Amino acid sequence: MTESTASEPTDGQPPRKPVQLTDVADYEDLLEEQDLVLLEFVTSGCGICASMEPVLGTVARSAPGAVATVNAGLVPDLAAEFDVRSVPTLVVLRDGEEVARFDDGFQPAESLVDALEAHAAE
Length: 122
What we know:
Elements: E1 19-21, H1 24-33, E2 36-42, H2 47-62, E3 66-71, H3 76-81, E4 89-94, E5 97-102, H4 109-120
Parallel strand pairs: 1-3, 2-3
Antiparallel strand pairs: 2-4, 4-5
Helix pairs in contact: 2-4
């Protein structure tokens, strides 16, 4: 899911495709640029995670905020910070604070868009 990286300039606008966060610094940079973020924690070889890729692409194009993916195995400090116990785990952040969480498997785009829209106006 390396469609984009967090280091690409966004001019404060959310990227319209998911970004891959490869370390804690990428995460911190994203939070500095974006008020609303959907983080997806995945691991290599996770079938459900792979099936979420097109869903996250849809969400990134249609919802407010940024969409980012973190490989929990490669960035364990961030996974531990969010107490990730299963993958995929999706976390909605508003101003760096968790406001919604989905940790029960595949999520349809509509559910994720609704969660982002609900917290966009705060």
